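[09:14] KT: can someone run the structure on this one? pasting the chain below
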Amino acid sequence: MIRTALLVAGKDLRIERRSRVLLWQVVPFGVMALLLCGLALGPQRAGHSSAAPGLFYIVVVLVVLLMINRSHGVESTPGTRASVATLGLDPAGVFLGKALALAVELWLTSAVLLAGSVVVLHTALHGTLVALPSIVVTLGALAGAGTLYGALSSGANGSATLLPVLSLPAFAPLLIAGERSFSAALYGGALWEWWVISLVALAGYLAVGILLYGVLEES
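[09:31] RB: done, structure tokens below
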């Protein structure tokens, strides 16, 4: 399972490195969305508003949806699924590999967005660094959930529009936990309580994915 996961993750990351869609499309989209959030706050409220963590995670959700569609779009080309099926790859390993690749891409993109948050939304650098572990865990949980819901919607007509409808309710608890832990790091509060929620969600989505990903791919 682990070997399959590493093979699949390496394949997805090589595709992104060669296509540079992440670099030239997804990251600029995220930066522009963050700039729009800064403009919406206005120069006087930026740095004095507690909305920055929530705005950061809203932008992250938009980026995640793009990444999920991209990740499963690679598999939707004619003959790809049939070829993967003939290889007899462990579905649990395929899930872990795709989730890992998505998480790595999301971590890299979010590093740029966090730097932009410090510059545009004037979030405190020290608080942002304190929040990093909780952000990494929350993004990992989003990657696991996104991989599951991407597989669930990939075979349907209008999958690009169906994906947000299916995934956003599942993302909501993660966004709340991520925003609260980020806010606690910036402004003081119970950071660990919300971080535990993200950890439990990460473990839960990974467990469900390992058990059910093969069924979702066949549906």
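[09:33] KT: thanks! The mean pLDDT is 82.
[09:34] RB: yep, looked fine to me
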